[in-house]
Specification:
- This protein is an alpha+beta fold.
- It folds into two domains: about 5-90, no CATH class; about 90-155, no CATH class.
- The chain is built from six helices and five strands.
- Strands 1-5-4-3-2 form a five-stranded antiparallel beta sheet.
- Helix 1 runs antiparallel to helix 2 (about 75-90) and helix 3 (about 90-105) packs across helix 6 (about 135-155).
- It is globular, with a radius of gyration of 17 Å.
Length: about 160
């Protein structure tokens, strides 16, 4: 996977579209990469511990399964971390299901070490959406995430 799908700053060293080599388009939210005329949209991406980095994703935004594949196979760090940020922000319920599926098979789970690491799945925290859920539902989700983090620790340490 050699195509750049995400671009992001590191310690906020880039802020403006021109810092990423992008120019404005007729749409205020869309930018153009002059070299190939591809379209890019601004989005705060991965949080390395000091806040979400400035970044852009190439349109169209990949869906969940494609994002997982990018994390597993992309040569570009920005692609891997950009994909992780989108999954953590937009696909937390699908992530829970994916982790449960992967962890059912030990051989399969071993292949996902990089995936587990980049998503920091060893940290026991509730990544599920809490909006509109009862306390009981939130507690049940947290229990599932704690179980996942416990299992993940076997593969990344």
């Amino acid at each position: 996977m050699n195509e750049k799908l995400f671009m992001m700053s590191m310690r906020f060293n880039k802020k403006f579209p021109k810092d990423f080599g992008l120019i404005p388009s007729e749409d205020a939210d869309i930018y153009i990469m002059p070299s190939d005329k591809s379209l890019w949209k601004k989005r705060n991406l991965y949080d390395f511990g000091w806040g979400k980095e400035n970044g852009y994703y190439k349109l169209p935004l990949p869906q969940f399964d494609d994002l997982v594949n990018i994390i597993m196979n992309s040569e570009f760090k920005d692609n891997r971390y950009g994909s992780a940020a989108i999954i953590l922000d937009d696909y937390n319920d699908k992530l829970l299901i994916k982790c449960q599926e992967v962890l059912r098979d030990e051989q399969n789970a071993k292949r996902y070490c990089a995936f587990f690491n980049i998503l920091k799945l060893d940290i026991p925290m509730n990544r599920s959406s809490k909006l509109g859920k009862s306390y009981k539902e939130i507690a049940e989700d947290f229990k599932k995430w704690k179980d996942i983090s416990k299992q993940v620790l076997k593969y990344i340490n």
